[in-house]
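Protocol step 6 of 9: fold each sequence in the batch and record its structure tokens directly after the sequence line. For illustration, a two-sequence batch is reproduced in full.

Sequence one:
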Amino acid sequence: MTETTSAQSPADLRSVIGGVPLQRADRPMANTNPSLTEEVLAHVSLADRGDFSSACRTAKQAQQEWARTPAPIRGQVIGNIADLATANKEALSRAVTRDIGKTLTEARGEVQEVIDTCEFFRSEGRRLYGHTVPSEMPDKQLFTFRDPLGVAAVITAGNFPVAVPSWYIVPALLTGNTVVWKPAEYSASCAWVLYEVFSRAGLPPGVLNIVYCEGEEAFAGLSDALDEGLVDKVGFTGSTTVGSRIGELCGRHLQTPCLELGGKNPMVVTEDADVELAAEGALFSGFGTAGQRCTSLGTAIVHESVYERFISLLTEATASAAVGDPTRDVLYGPMINERFAERYEGFLNWISDHHRVLGSTATGRITPARPREGFVGDPESGFFYHPVILDGVRPSDKVFTEETFGPIIGVTTYRHLEEAIELSNLPGYGLSSAVYTTDPRTAFTFRSGVGAGMVSVNNSTSGAEAHMPFGGNGRSGNGGRLSGTWVLDQFTRWRSMNWDYSGKLQKAQMDVAQIEADMSFRLE
């Protein structure tokens, strides 16, 4: 990258297009620490729709040269990113914790996901295999090749501000595409740190561009860029509502975006389950990252014979878990920012009289008036909220059917496995799911019946690995998959080639040799 990018102060963040930072805004947005809201991490100059489409134009101009770079060499660049991320792992992790309030332990795991993704694709440039295919005619060969699409516009949420972007950007770059990345503006600081790591790895200017802007400006700029023919693939991680708009926009241009959307992820606990293990899994998947994962546990669907045992164990574990300062040993820290905290307050309004509220000493924001026993740190310093377990959730409840992005778990009962599967599918999401059982038949019956793209057996609903397909169905996405070799289909298209060296025109399906056979033969 150019020297101008390295001269920027982390406290003064601007979009970078073609290696050149945009001008500072007159009134930049303050990017603050959600666990210490008075701490301003950066001043972010937000771009507009014109800047977004300009970045796409720059990426388009850089794409052919990048695609001509041999794939193994592009793989070396990805390997450089892996090595740089490894060398800077602690600094990256602390940047994530400061920016979105994720615990330092989880932040380190997220940065490791970036490293794992890069390590997986480091050598994939040597394995972008096509196929040689036998022809039905003599002196003719058939081939297939993976070709890059062109420019990828990647728009990501901030709850996984470095891992999820890497799931898109790394394979897109490896396969010869250029990228325009719009991170969430509320996680601007750690997005910048990730961009710094990528830009130092040997990427030419214009191959990776970062654009800070609000969602509506990005949407408008994306629409302009699609109209101009500048974008060939859209990757989006975020809400189902926005994903539907992006899907509609891309559909008008005959493009299929890769959409990774929300989830209402079920956990089924069967009568033969290890209930202690199930409660432990529910605690982590429901309250890790303060419930702000797309794979967070939505509803625990528990067999009536073990229900009381499960709810007792989960309540005890939740009530005794440390909450607070994310740099210390806690289950979770704050909400990502004020906007998420306000939205979560709305979800709490869905609690009804028929619900029994468990898990903490109060509900809502943790304050001196509504204290949390064992809170770590100063609750008034950030957006900290009580964990909530809702006993007695019904299928007609909004807390059962809708995503609740925050530290809240619903619990309900079932009698038969078919009922549990039906309840799991009822909300219409299809991202992640879990079943706790010691019976293989139950595990495979659940797998074949549940609509989720990912199924865990005796594990939490959260926990992706870099070499497994990640993605959902229904309200959780349009079937696209990230990670592993499966993501290659998102950023490449197959091209076929036939080579006839017979010296004459051979017409497929017409000039094919005819085989003589006696098909009336029968053994006596």
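Sequence two, same batch, same settings:
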Amino acid sequence: MKNNIFSRSAILAASITCLLLPLASCDKDLDVTPYSYFTTANFFSDVNEANMATLGVYESMSSLDSYGWNISLIFDADTDVMQMTGIGADDWRTIAHYQGISQTTTFYTAWSKLYEGIDRANVVIERIPQMDLFTNGTNIEKAQLYIMLGEAKFLRGFYYSELVRLWGDVPFKTKSSQSGDNLKVGLVDRYEIYTQIIKDMTEASLLLPEQNPTTERINKWAAKAMLARVALFAGGYSLAADGTSKRPSNYKEYYQLAQKHINDVMAQNPYKLNPSYSKVFKNQCQHVLEPTENIFQVAFYNPSGNLGNASWVGNFNGPATANGLYPSNISRCLVPKPFYNSFNAADQRRDFSIATYSINALGNKLPLLTTNQDERWTVGKWSREYQTNATAERVYTHINWVIMRYSDLLLMRAEVENELNEGPNAIAYDAVNQVRKRAFGADIQGSGIAVDIKTKGTGYTNAANVVIQITGGGGSDASAAVVTLASGGINTIGMLRSGDGYTSVPTVTITSTDGKGTGATATARLLTKPTVSQINLPAGLSKADFLKALQQERAWELSGEGMRRADLIRWGILGDKLAETSAAVKAIRATYFFPSITNFVAGKHELYPFPQNETDVNKNITRQNPKY
């Protein structure tokens, strides 16, 4: 289980001692006043106070306003792999469907949380070197303070990288807010900010520990991996103030920087892929820290209903679940059917990532495979069925939000090598094929299964009440359900998941929850595992074709994990992918729900508008982002 960096006492202490100074708000007459009861003279008198302040920098991530909901889930839709359900005035719908405006509250809450984290980091970066212990403490004390300084520098760089990713040029300050300061600073060019981000993260990597963490705190290799991601964004396409989407003329220098830091990480080999793709997310749902797979993650912990850092992960973005065996959820993150169709049927990521079913109060899966039910398919990685089912997680959860996994770093490596070598080399192919090998279960003994009806039976009256149970065989995750009945017998069944790890044919049992119907039987069969040549990308791809394959691989591997919309923007293809997806869903059904194509405006929606709450106060922000 995870060793929470936020205990009940730490949450309270961090929120009290580290909300040192607020940022500008919509109140034009607001004076800057300390929130803390610590004074400048006695704050950071020992290592524990410095630690509480550093935890406060982390704590800005652990909020519904940031990575518990807004930035992680809402800001990643709508794309070719995920969209929000329904039409309405809710911020989470209007933002996702490209209808957000400067007055949209969620923009301001996310913006404020990121700047809160930056201001807290600025305090730590300034105060730790002023401590007597920083110079005169024991070796252990000094080592601890150096690590905390590195954490604060990394997190300041990370928060700024997110602001630039979402808003482009933004206000920029590297000094903590003090009473009497002018907090109303103007916009700073994003590439000037990137220079400081790179400096912060580079310096952080020199201070942070090398060993794998036992909590969610950052280490040296994670800082380097995240710096590589920042470099790819700095070298990618972004929407400029003149309304054009372009990349910098020296973009390859950023790719070279990414290559350097990726190579540094790979040379140390601190990470590895969990052989089971599904186990990665089951571990997340069960709060099992996996620092060799999950490089950087946000800690969530909610010890009571009104205190803590809670998340919507696994509630907002799981399959529709009725209250009963599992807690109910609100199931807002839909998956377009063309994305499901894009997978190879043997790719185990398809049926685990995409839920083609709902879950009833008994915990049984109900297939969504007829008529227009494909419009209700959802993200499946954090399903209620994998969670702890604890009372404290029936609404909000403690599931960490993983910002980078090792497979992400491997795919970044492939992208960098392809770009810098004007085509894929052996390193690029190996990196992608490692990810694909795991996706097809190549390192797991056994395979997936299929289930076939043998005897249709009689007397069944409702397909939803017929349950297909699969037991034995050495594997897991296989699931099938009755789709239709005919003349009282089972007419068709659908495989919801083929599972993996089956070394022998499992037993299939058919029962009826309402006691109606009898005699139906089914048998399972093992599926043939793909060969290495079928799994690997074809050799000899051009630079352009390899990039397209890589872009698709990132969709298959990382869907629903918060980076798809950002990836499409940095590649300059967000509008293209929305148009492509719209055409594909309309080919399925003219009425297929996909509202973003109507609302999306190229040269506008690649960035968010500066929040009006901010621009009303800060008149040094003299322009709005293009077309808002």
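Proceed to step 7 once all outputs are recorded. Observation for sequence two: Residues 184 and 618 are 5 Å apart (CA to CA).
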